[in-house]
UniProtKB/TrEMBL annotation:
InterPro entries: Class_I_gatase-like (IPR029062), PdxT/SNO (IPR002161), PdxT/SNO_CS (IPR021196). This is glutaminase. It is an enzyme of class 3 (hydrolase). It catalyses: L-glutamine + H2O = L-glutamate + NH4(+). GO terms for biological process: pyridoxal phosphate biosynthetic process; pyridoxine metabolic process. One of its GO terms (cellular component) is glutaminase complex. GO terms for molecular function: glutaminase activity; lyase activity; transaminase activity. It comes from Schizosaccharomyces osmophilus.
Amino acid sequence: KVRIGVLALQGAFIEHINILNSFDHVFSFPVKTGADCENIDGLVLPGGESTTMGRLIGIDTDLKENLESLVARGVPMWGTCAGMILLSKKSHGGKFPDPYLLRAMDIEVTRNYFGPQTMSFTTTIHPTDFMKFETTKRMEAFDATFIRAPIASSIGSEDVRVLATTVHEENEVIVAVEQGPFLGTSFHPELTVDDSWHKWWVNERVLPTKK
Ligand code: GLN
């Protein structure tokens, strides 16, 4: 089976684990310690609160070093919302101090771009042509849920590919990006019934790299 860890320090990790374990070919488990990072084919960094998650990583040197080594080895990672912030190289606009960041992706993010919790919303987004769904067939559009979500406000390298945008107050903003083995989405595909993003990521992004 494909072994997918989900960082389980805080936030919406159970939802990811449940969806991933509903696939016959996946074994998904919580990652709380450095030792949990061993023998892992892919890692999900969930939504939650990135300052809190970053602090919890920062006080556990073993976990921190193991996560950084997964980044250095190019193990596929997918950050949703706060997880996308952790994957970025710089964050702006948080109410809280800048979190510890894994700096895996050459993007800068703006936190809470769409406003506070009460401004949460679900909208339809259309993936760009980069996002091909060889294994899941459909996927012209997704319902995406945004909860105090960040956006990728600046892209620092040509190999960052924009997978989806949405329009907010007449601005087109980037809400899904990919760079090499790393994927960041502003929204929460683990909170909608549609499991296509998980299926796509496992089958198109993790399986092909499995040794
Ligand atoms: N606003 C949160 C942060 O800055 C992210 C919110 C979320 O993950 N739903 O970390």
